[in-house]
Amino acid sequence: MMTLNNDRGTSxxxxxxxxxxxxxxxxxxxxxxxxxxxxxxxxxxxxAARQVATxxxxxxxxxxxxxxxxxxxxxxVVDDVVIEVSAGNTGDLETSFRVEAxxxxxxxxxxxxxxxxxxxxxxxxx
Length: 126
Known about the structure:
Layout (H helix, E strand, L loop, with lengths): L11 H52 L18 E6 L9 E6 L7 E4 L9 E3 L1
Antiparallel strand pairs: 1-2, 2-3, 3-4
């Protein structure tokens, strides 16, 4: 009597095909993760710029001028975002301000101007 022998293992080609497919999928996933992370850091920087701008308006209501440094503003937490405050388009912190926010891991920096030119937005991406 003849018996059938079906004890066949996985061939080397099948293993290589599966390995290549997993490598391609991992490459796609890693690049997407990096994009999502960069977008998250960009959102954090834009949010910090808006938060400092809101704090500047509260500071102005108390002192009738804008703060020269974000650390002078109560309640503003910028974490690891780099914030630079300077005079706005009028050239004087008594009447306007400009907030530049950046982060080493962000793809973009953001600028908030309290007195933008007509037709321009307060927040712009650099």
